[in-house]
Amino acid sequence: MKSKLALFLVLIMLISTMATGCTSSQTQAPAEPPKTEDPANEPEGPAAGEPVKVGAILPLSGSAAATGVKLKYAIEVAQEIINGEHPDIALPLAETMGLPNLGNAPIQVVFSDHQGNPEIAKTEAERLIQNEKVAALVGAYQSSATKPASQSAERFKVPFVAGSSSSAALTERGLNYFTRIAPNDDMETEVFFEYLKYLNEETNADIKTIGVVFIDNEYGVHAAEMVDKWLEEKYAADGFEKVVAVKYPTDVTSVDTEVQQIKAANPDVLFHASYIGDITQFVKKYKEFEFSPKAVVNYCGGFQDTQFVVNLDKDGDFFSGGAACAPTLFSTMEVADKINELFKVKSGGENIDGPALEEFASLMVVADAINQAKSTNGDAIMEVIRTAKFDAPYFSTGAIQFDEKGQNFYSASFIVQTQGAEYEAVFPVEIQTAKPIAPFPTWTERK
Amino acid sequence: MVKNKKTLIIIIAVLAALPLIFKSDSFHNIMVLLLIYATLGEAWNIITGFAGQISFGHAAFFGIGAYTSSVLFYRFDISPWVGMVLGGIFAAMVALIISYPTFRLKGSYFAIATLAVAEIIKQLFVSWKFVEGATGISLPIVDDSWLCMEFHTTKLPYIYIALGLFAIVIFVCNYIENSKTGFYLKAIRESHEVAESIGINTTNYKTLAMVISAFISAFAGSLYAQYVLYIDPFMIFTLDISIKIVLLTVLGGIGNIYGPLIGASILIPLSEITRVQLGGTGRGIDLMIFGLLVILVACYQPKGIIGLVNKVAKKFKKEGEGNVEANS
């Protein structure tokens, strides 16, 4: 019996082995040279007609799947622009097919799903680097997934350009192969305070007391820490004061208690760090409990997802937050408008949002850097990424350039406010498409 | 017992040979995860399979191990090997402390209590600045080193560390299963009251099982942290890990030392293959297939794969005996 059992166990392991062995052999090109210890030092450049592979790690399933799919569309749009001929779009690599400096090699994006799980993000990053031989990585939206994935990229000396991950801690790790396009929550918080000061000057809002509402994960907790940091360092002197901080669990199903807690403290402004499902629940409860703060500012997350206005329609009006784009600006931003048109074909008519545009930018930057480096060598690509200034006419700032820590110092973010179920750019004044409305009308007044 | 040892040696030898035969990185990754989860399954089997106390909170001990070695390495440059041992000791101490109140509960109440304890520990780590709270710890990347347990050019060292740990654990489990303690634990599992009536100190033996189980889980946690090089409370104390441990052990065969390895040998490759092959589609198809297979096994083979093997073996034995009788 025992020997039969041993035989059975061995059989199971062998079957598993053969199955996984097959997986690997299918993804590895037979003509590949043997793996060297330092992939970055391999002589680079694809063979004629061979595509240059870039890995995109996104949450394509799990709680952020809806957002992940939109980010995938945005990256596909970038791939389409790079690989096709789009002389009508004034973007680097749009006019020609593929990467001109590499014999017009096309970019091939290999998508993978990290399910919102950091362990899977790390595993997928390694798989893409080792098996798929990607030249660079983009993604991974959730900061907690971007961290281990970029750690793996660092180990293999493969560039990782994060589009929309916002935790400031990402660029504080001293990594040499990591950069990020989105403004981090540190930068966003400063902009929020400047916006509030502007509201106090321009309207009769008289905003002083602050409430912070944040999800209990790295994104939320770090955002809340940034509020404390900026209050202590600068804005407490302007009369701002935190009166309540409400943390809610990642798997929250009802926010009644949280909203009652917020209402009891009655802050003038709420700083929200929430994903789309959570912020939708909160707004519905604010209405139910008739809680009307004077303003609400949202970190890059659920509010920026265009699903916010779909879910809430006019109940979602007067909320504001940092964003990399606003459809109302597209009429004055020709390139962004054309990108949006391509995006809408994939999304079924839905406009591109800030995080999606940032992920779009990440692939454009990577492709541009590979083209300028004339190589798929990690060090050569990173050298370009670190030193070059990339044209980004789809952002209000018009450019992307990274500082020594890898943070894009042209903060692409501005403040948008929902008015009539549309995102209007309200701050800074130079790009304003509408005047901000503050304080909020009460829920009764809205009727 | 001797036959068991021979079987175990064959299994360990096969496991040791596999990564040398199949050299793909994907396969090596699966081997590391498979061995870590099989070790966790063995640990869980001691308290649940042998002693019959259902725990849904083993991620807590796993997390304590991961955090102890990571914090010591990250803050004080102390080798993860030292952190691994200290993590085991901390986890065992925590198990000892929580065992006293929770072992006064029985059945589903104990299971709920373990869930609650794991959640409390998670919240402590989320709010604890010294361990970087919700932000988590990114372990420093150093050159390949056995001392620092970091290997970037090959996964083979991780596989053999995981295999070494698994081998020790499965022999310990085999020893416990066939020892007086193992028989006492099984007696407690079958009937708490009867075990007490024959003089077994049920609280002491259950606590001992919990402490050993926590100690082993923490070792696996330290190794996992060194492998992933990043931990945060949401990934490490998650219910998903506790459920995965339960799932693979139940699938393989609960209360049997081979069960966790069989379960892990099926679930981990299945999870990885479906995810890699189908994950990029953006529709979560891999998770659907995974869920469906788990439902099928749970519905048609509740005793696990090992139960199926035993059933088939018994059938063959009966047929063999029948043939002998007919011939005589």
From TrEMBL, chain A:
Residues 51-419 form the Leucine-binding protein domain. Residues 24-51 are annotated as: Disordered. Residues 1-21 form the signal peptide. The keyword tRNA-binding does not apply. Keywords: Signal. InterPro entries: BCAA_transport, Leu-bd, Peripla_BP_I. The keyword Signal applies. Belongs to the leucine-binding protein family. This is ABC transporter substrate-binding protein. It comes from Sedimentibacter hydroxybenzoicus DSM 7310. The lineage of its organism: Bacteria, Bacillati, Bacillota, Tissierellia, Sedimentibacter.
Automatic annotation (TrEMBL), chain B:
Pfam families: BPD_transp_2. The keyword Cell membrane applies. Its main location: membrane. One of its GO terms (molecular function) is branched-chain amino acid transmembrane transporter activity. Coiled coil: none annotated. The chain crosses the membrane at residues 50-74, 81-103, 158-177, 208-231, 243-268, 288-309. GO terms for cellular component: plasma membrane. It comes from the Bacteria. InterPro entries: ABC_transp_permease, LivM-like. This is Branched-chain amino acid ABC transporter permease.
